[in-house]
Backbone:
């Protein structure tokens, strides 16, 4: 039987995967951005599930805005990445430590 | 019954592809896995009667954002150093923390489950009203301001992206109006007194 | 009027001392001499006047407070004067001896750079001793007690550049302190029992708590009075140098001879005996305390006397003699014959001071030579010193007719007739002690004044008049004072207003009529003969067969060794106690102070802060995923809290 808990648990799992991805990543920054997208999608899941089960459309409205903002954020993030690449010629995560100590 | 089958199938695919996002070495493979997760989650949203948003997800996210991702991945020369392990030293710890978070969230959900509406079958849905209509009605009446702001945010995103990445061609002869106005006559004209030649 | 007079007698030496101390050096020797001698002389005159008045009207005593020092709730601490027979006798003794010593010092310390300081100190000492004897409550007694201890410390270490003097004065002060600890405990106990420190209140109410007991431990109950008396006696042990706290007195001979005469013969060391007599109402209620006093006194009397036999320093012999005689006084107190004890105190003050000053005269004449092996045959060169020493020595051993004889004999009679717990043991101790006394006294006398005159001493001559006059003035009482005073003081209740003791019949088993008959009565006892035997033996050993003492030393080598090492008491104190406390102090300093406080707490805190901040700095690794992890970590903690809260395990 599909209950709200199932959807919410699924969203929680995706959220956790996203977090793990951010932290254990060693390859490059793009992965971080992709994991951010994963986080956002799990939150959207939550909203839509609640909207369905509470018969309130407000949840979907909010998802709408989240989608918008997420798209904008992805674009800007990639632009920053490109600028970073131009300066450092590398997008390795390990090299981004000028703020060290 | 059907719903359960669909749900469990798609949710397992979703989880697997999410894992694939973080586990693949090749960033292109990760991006493609992410596309798969988006599509699957779109299907799941369909189960939840959110048709408009499901389609929008696929159109916007997959069609625009992920394409952009792939652009950038291809454009930047990413060297995969295969000899290095792709997981850093924090891996076990992070795994542990992640598991803890997932467990806690799920526990919270199940603990507070008495506060939710449990039965999805009993929920009434207004007939013949599509999801799009509902969404549109809400959006343009109660949330019109946020709608405008969302548009503005998109504009902002455009401007920022361009301004960050624009590289002017060097040695382009354009007119810089500010410099033109601010010149001194003395830097353009020099009066020379020439003696008359006889 | 009398009260004001007594107050003046108390304060004058203080003022004199202060004046001499501050202005003496500037103004000059004559000023110092004049001021201090004037102070003590006037005090003596007043004391004698008070004595005469008290003799006329024996019931005249007054006990008056000068001012209230401290008032806490119901408790009242004040400074006051109690002048009765006991006080006045002590005052006269103290002032007289002090005056003699003042005059003596003019000559003795003539060339010493600390001349004015010395006069200041001995005047201050006189003030302290007077405040001790004139006290009417324990607080003032304690003040006087400590003050004389301080003055003794200052005076023993008078030549403070000499290392042995510094060591000696530390020793004296510290051992005194040990005694004082007991005294403080005793005073505190009395305060808690009676609620007041006044003599009058305590003595009047002493009977009522006769049966009270104190639990020292859950299984051990002692009568409170016994405990208090024992503690008070502990203080007396320190001040009056009873065994085992006797070790400071011989070493205190490092100080100049005048103070050995004043402090360590006549006055300070007798403060303990004075206190015993003053506290007689309390001691009479506790037979066990008295027995303890008896045992300690008799052990001291005999063992220190034996030590005097093997000493080579002229002053040390006399010091051990003082220790022994103090033991006698304490023994007398132990059998409840306080009057005999006080009488012996008085006579002892005279002849012991005389002996010390005579020794000082010899030392000065021989240019500060103190080893008796370098002396001999000095009777022809120092006639007055010789005669006065002879008088003093005869008085000391109790030769019939001299003052010491009466006091010693009364004392020994009292011990004989007592049936206190250890009185048999004490009797044998004091009897043997008489023999030992005459042994060491006349050993000293014969070695110094008889025998061969050594080459280097052929040119000595008598010291100046200011040294000889006190000797003469002290020799006269040593001979004569006992005759008129033994009756009233010992037998006829001169002190009956001040002390409580059994009647003379019970105590001495003898009905006193007059001093002449007392003398003839004593001739029937063994004491006189033992004393004379001692003289004869010494004469034999040191005049006739002078090589015999050395042979005896070799034959009885183990005993000799023990005696030379003073029963290893010094060894015990120095190596075990002192070393232990030294180590404790050092380790406390090293570990407690340096390691713990300085290094661990002060420096350590700074180091910890640095260390922690260093580590914290490394948290800023610059890696974003580190930061992300931290955020997530915080999130998980928060979630955990929420989960636990909703489960109900935590609030």
Residues:
């Amino acid at each position: 039987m599909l209950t709200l808990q199932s959807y919410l648990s699924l969203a929680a799992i995706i959220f956790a995967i996203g977090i793990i991805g951010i932290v254990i990543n060693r390859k490059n920054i793009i992965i971080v951005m992709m994991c951010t997208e994963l986080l956002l999608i799990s939150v959207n899941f939550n909203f839509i599930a609640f909207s369905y089960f509470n018969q309130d459309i407000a949840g979907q409205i909010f998802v709408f805005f989240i989608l918008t903002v997420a798209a904008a954020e992805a674009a800007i993030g990639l632009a920053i990445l490109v600028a970073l690449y131009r300066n450092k010629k590398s997008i390795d995560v390990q090299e981004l430590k000028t703020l060290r100590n | 019954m059907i719903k359960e089958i669909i749900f469990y199938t798609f949710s397992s695919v979703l989880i697997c592809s999410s894992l694939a996002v973080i586990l693949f070495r090749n960033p292109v493979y990760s991006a493609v896995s992410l596309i798969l997760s988006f599509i699957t989650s779109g299907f799941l949203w369909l189960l939840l009667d959110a048709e408009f948003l499901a389609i929008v997800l696929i159109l916007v996210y997959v069609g625009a954002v992920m394409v952009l991702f792939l652009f950038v991945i291809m454009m930047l020369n990413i060297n995969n150093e295969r000899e290095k392990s792709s997981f850093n030293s924090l891996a076990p710890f992070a795994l542990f923390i992640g598991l803890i978070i997932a467990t806690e969230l799920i526990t919270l959900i199940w603990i507070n489950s008495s506060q939710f509406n449990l039965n999805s079958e009993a929920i009434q849905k207004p007939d013949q009203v599509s999801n799009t209509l509902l969404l549109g009605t809400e959006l343009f009446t109660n949330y019109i301001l946020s709608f405008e702001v969302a548009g503005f945010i998109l504009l902002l995103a455009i401007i920022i992206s361009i301004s960050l990445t624009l590289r002017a061609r060097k040695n382009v002869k354009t007119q810089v109006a500010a410099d033109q106005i601010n010149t001194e006559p003395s830097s353009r004209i020099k009066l020379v007194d020439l003696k008359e030649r006889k | 009027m009398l009260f004001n007079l007594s107050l003046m007698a108390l304060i004058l030496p203080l003022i004199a001392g202060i004046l001499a101390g501050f202005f003496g050096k500037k103004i000059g020797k004559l000023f110092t001499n004049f001021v201090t001698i004037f102070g003590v002389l006037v005090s003596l005159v007043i004391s004698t006047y008070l004595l005469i008045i008290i003799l006329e009207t024996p019931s005249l005593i007054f006990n008056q407070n000068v001012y209230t020092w401290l008032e806490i709730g119901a408790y009242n601490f004040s400074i006051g004067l109690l002048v009765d027979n006991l006080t006045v006798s002590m005052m006269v003794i103290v002032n007289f001896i002090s005056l003699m010593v003042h005059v003596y010092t003019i000559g003795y310390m003539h060339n010493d750079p600390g001349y004015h300081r010395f006069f200041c100190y001995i005047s201050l000492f006189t003030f302290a001793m007077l405040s001790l004897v004139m006290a009417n409550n324990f607080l003032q007694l304690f003040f006087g007690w400590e003050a004389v201890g301080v003055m003794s410390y200052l005076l023993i270490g008078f030549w403070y550049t000499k290392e042995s003097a510094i060591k000696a004065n530390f020793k004296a002060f510290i051992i005194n302190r040990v005694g004082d600890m007991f005294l403080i405990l005793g005073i505190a106990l009395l305060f808690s029992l009676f609620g007041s420190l006044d003599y009058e209140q305590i003595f009047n109410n002493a009977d009522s708590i006769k049966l009270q007991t104190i639990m020292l431990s859950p299984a051990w109950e002692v009568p409170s009075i016994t405990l208090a008396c024992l503690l008070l006696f502990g203080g007396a042990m320190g001040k009056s140098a009873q065994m085992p706290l006797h070790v400071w007195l011989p070493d205190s001979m490092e100080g100049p001879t005048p103070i050995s005469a004043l402090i360590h013969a006549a006055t300070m060391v007798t403060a303990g005996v004075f206190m015993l007599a003053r506290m007689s109402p309390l001691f009479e209620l506790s037979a066990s305390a008295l027995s303890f006093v008896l045992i300690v006194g008799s052990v001291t009397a005999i063992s220190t006397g034996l030590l005097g036999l093997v000493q080579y320093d002229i002053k040390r012999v006399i010091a051990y003699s003082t220790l022994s005689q103090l033991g006698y006084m304490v023994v007398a107190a132990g059998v409840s014959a306080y009057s005999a004890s006080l009488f012996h105190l008085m006579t002892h003050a005279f002849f012991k001071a005389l002996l010390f000053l005579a020794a000082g005269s010899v030392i000065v004449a021989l240019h500060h030579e103190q080893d008796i092996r370098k002396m001999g045959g000095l009777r022809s060169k120092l006639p007055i010193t010789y005669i006065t020493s002879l008088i003093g020595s005869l008085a000391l051993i109790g030769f019939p007719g001299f003052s010491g004889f009466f006091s010693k004999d009364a004392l020994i009679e009292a011990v004989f007739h007592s049936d206190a717990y250890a009185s048999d043991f004490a009797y044998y101790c004091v009897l043997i002690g008489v023999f030992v006394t005459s042994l060491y006294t006349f050993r000293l006398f014969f070695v110094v004044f008889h025998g061969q005159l050594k080459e280097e001493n052929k040119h000595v001559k008598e010291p100046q008049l200011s040294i000889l006059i006190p000797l003469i003035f002290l020799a006269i009482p040593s001979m004569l004072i006992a005759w008129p005073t033994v009756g009233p003081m010992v037998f006829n209740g001169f002190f009956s207003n001040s002390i409580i003791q059994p009647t003379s019949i019970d105590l001495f088993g003898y009905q006193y009529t007059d001093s002449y008959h007392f003398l003839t009565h004593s001739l029937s006892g063994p004491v006189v003969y033992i004393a004379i035997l001692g003289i004869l033996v010494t004469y034999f050993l040191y005049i006739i067969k002078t090589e015999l003492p050395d042979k005896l030393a070799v034959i009885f080598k183990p005993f000799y060794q023990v005696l030379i090492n003073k029963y290893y008491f010094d060894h015990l104190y120095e190596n075990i106690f002192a070393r232990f406390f030294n180590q404790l102090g050092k380790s406390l300093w090293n570990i407690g102070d340096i390691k713990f406080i300085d290094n661990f707490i002060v420096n350590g805190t700074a180091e910890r802060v640095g260390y922690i901040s260093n580590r914290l700095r490394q948290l800023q690794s610059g890696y974003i995923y580190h930061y992300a992890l931290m955020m997530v970590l915080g999130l998980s903690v928060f979630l955990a809290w929420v989960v636990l809260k909703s489960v109900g395990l935590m609030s």
